[in-house]
Structure formats: structure tokens, C-alpha cells
Amino acid sequence: MSKHPHEVTREQAEEAVRTLLRWAGDDPAREGLLETPKRVVKAYRDWFSGYALDPDDYLRRTFEEVEGYDEMIVLRDIEFESHCEHHMAPIVGKAHVGYLPDGKVVGISKLARVVDAYARRFQVQEKMTAQIADCIQRALSPRGVGVVIEATHECMTTRGVHKRGVSMITSRMLGSFRDDARTRAEFLAFIDVGLGR
Questions:
Q1: Strands (DSSP E) along the chain, which ranges?
Q2: I need a labelling partner for 110 at 20 to 30 A (CA). Which of 20, 31, 45, 61 fits?
Q3: Is 84 a catalytic residue?
Q4: Is 85 a catalytic residue?
């Protein structure tokens, strides 16, 4: 049976970590680093588990018995950890997700799972913001979707310009969140983020 062209064995991944340890100037055979390759590979399996997930699957089960509820639904402060695809450095932040249902809603834990599924991949924040909003739009066909992400990027705080305390905010507004200033303002008030202030 042939391997997927991108498949890498655990042994190959561990050897790559040993190579990086040597390149950094250390000895992967010293006592303190002997188990490091195994630990790093295990951590990578967790950090990048999003590649094995289909975020759309989380939103397939919807509920239509909502007594005609058609007001905004917002889940804010969804904490996430991701990794920058440019430097493989951590991105840590919070996502805020809202939508205006059009006859069907989804369990709120599923929204958090969608955020995690996209976060647990190599990312750029702008792309991740769009992916989450587009996924909700595809699955629920709501009247509108809003996603705002606030995050700090370790590729900027620990290397290069070394600017601590800087966070990046990105947003993706679809449907009424984009077209109706009142809807957008209500969403931003709910999540307490002043975009454009």
C-alpha cells in the first residue's frame, strides 16, 4: 500500500527535530534533550490536529425549532492557540463569532469547535478569520455572519521587531453584518470591540 506523498513517519519527524537541535548548536544526545524529539512530535500532533478535521462537519446538525428566534446569536471570547505559517511561531488570541439565523441555529459549542479546527493548522490571522466566517455562511445560510479575531503573534514579539503588547484585530462581515451598519454596530457592541474607533 503506497504512502500519501506528504506522509512522514514519526521516526522521520523525530529525526528532523534532532537535526534542528544540532543546527541550533546543541547535542540531541545529551540527557536533557534525549526525549525532546518525541515530546515535540507529540506536541505537533496536538497543535496541528486541525488538518484531520472538517470544520463543516461540526455545523451539519442544526436546530430549527427555535420558536421563530431571529435575533443575533453571539459567542465571544473563544480562546485559541494557532501557529504562524511564516515562522511556525505561536498566535494566541480570542475569536468572537456572531450570526443572524434564518430558520436554523447550531449548538454554541460547535462554533467554538470550528474556531479550533481552523486554529490548529498553520495560519495567517486574516485567512483564519475568513475561513471561520465562510464556514458558518456555508453551513447555516444565515442572514449575516460576523467574525472578529484579536491575537498576539509571537513571530513579532519574540523575534524581529520585538514589540510586546501589540495585538492584531481582523474581521470578516458577511450579509447583513456587512451591509447594515446597525447590525454591525450591535455585534461590535456585544463583543466590546471598537473597530474603527
A1: 62-63, 73-84, 90-100, 105-106, 122-123, 144-153, 168-175
A2: 45
A3: yes
A4: yes
| Cβ(170)–Cβ(129) below 8 Å | yes
Q: Tell me if residue 4 is catalytic.
A: no
- 123 belongs to the catalytic site: no
> How does strand 62-63 pair with strand 105-106?
antiparallel
Q: Is 153 a catalytic residue?
A: yes
Three cell numbers at 187?
455585534
Catalytic residue among 11, 12, 86, 126: 86
**Which residue in the list 137, 150, 154, 155 is annotated as catalytic?**
155
Catalytic, out of 14, 83, 123, 125: 125
Among 81, 85, 150, 154, the active-site one is 85
* pLDDT tens column, 21-68: 999 999 999 999 999 999 999 999 999 999 999 999 999 888 876 777
| Catalytic residue from among 87, 137, 150, 154 | 87
Residue 121 has pLDDT above 90, yes or no: yes
Q: Please report, for residues 8, 39, 40, 44, 121, the alpha-carbon distance to residue 15 in angstroms, rounded to integers and kept in the order given.
A: 11, 12, 11, 14, 22
Q: What is the grid cell recorded at 163?
A: 514589540
pLDDT value at residue 117: 97
Task: Give the confidence band of 196 by pLDDT, cuts at 50, 70, 90.
Answer: very low
